Amino acid sequence: MIVPEIWVSLEDIASHTGLSKDTIRNYIKKNVIPYHRIGKQYKFRISEIDAWVESGKSAEIDTALILGYVK
How far apart are CA 13 and CA 50, in angstroms? Predict the structure, then answer.
């Protein structure tokens, strides 16, 4: 039997990644982190976040934000 992955909250993802909730919100606003919106809430799959981090895209966005490429 396949167990479906549960959706987690912004707070859970902040804790999982070690980032602040404000940083996660900023990434959502810039549409650079994988997320899903359910009503007024943002939900995440840990597997998608882990794949995003492992792909190096999370590091690229930090550099782009610092250099002002992403607004």
Answer: 10
DSSP one-letter code for 14: H
Q: What is the pTM of this model?
A: 0.77
Helix (H) or strand (E) holding 27: helix 21-29
pLDDT band at 2 (very low <50, low <70, confident <90, very high): confident
Q: Please state the φ and ψ torsions of residue 3, each to the nearest 5 degrees.
A: -95, 120
Is the Cβ–Cβ distance between 33 and 52 less than 8 Å?
Answer: yes
Rounded CA separation 71/18 (Å)? 23
Cα(11)–Cα(2) distance, rounded to whole angstroms?
26
Least Cα distance to 62 among 15, 17, 9 occurs for 17
The answer to whether residues 11 and 44 touch, using CB atoms and an 8 Å cutoff, is no
SS3 57: helix
